[in-house]
Amino acid sequence: MLKMRGLSKKEIEIISNLEFNRKYFFTSKDIDQFARNKTHRYNIIKNLVKKKRIVKINKIKYYLIPIKAKSGSWIEHSFILADEICNGNDYFIGGWSAAHYYRLTDQIPMWIQIYTTKRQGKTKILNSKFIFHRTTKKRIERSIKKTIQKHIFKIQNKRDTKKWMKSRE
User: Fold this and answer.
1) Quick count: other Cβ atoms within 10 Å of Cβ 83?
2) Structural domains in the chain?
3) Beta strands in the chain, from DSSP E residues, in sequence order
4) C-beta of residue 9 within 8 angstroms of C-beta of residue 1
5) pLDDT tens profile 39-79
6) Where would you tag: which of 4, 24, 76, 113 has the fewest CB atoms within 10 A of its CB?
7) Are the C-beta atoms of 92 and 58 separated by less than 8 Å?
8) pTM attached to this predicted model
9) pLDDT in tens, 39-50
């Protein structure tokens, strides 16, 4: 069996299983089969986070750093991360992020702006910076679905993005 520095046999087994099944975004339930009980599962997750092999995305979801990431750092597309942070619902990507996506500006946004009904504030995950803004369900319903790297995400429609940019002038 492959021996990686700092990882136990159980941790290698979990990481290998998740990676083999291409389950880079997962919940604690996905590793229940490897744990004896809830406390053991909690300790496994805590140790993998400490060893920087997984990253906590939200209250229930984690991201697996692939084994091929030698230094332990990895980059995932920010829009995919945004979708996973919000569990795929009640959000859209807007502001400068949407403007750049539609090529309405050459300015590369420093923050990915996520409009949601659930949270606000800032966070940084896997070298991507996210800023959450509160919005209404009605505005979320006007967002559209797009695909990037075979992953669906929600983004503000182009017309609303143009309107948002005009308000910035």
Assistant:
1) 23
2) 9-64 (1.10.10), 78-168 (no CATH)
3) 25-27, 54-56, 61-64, 91-94, 112-116, 121-125, 128-134, 144-148, 151-155
4) yes
5) 999 999 999 999 888 899 988 899 998 776 655 556 788 99
6) 4
7) no
8) 0.80
9) 999 999 999 999
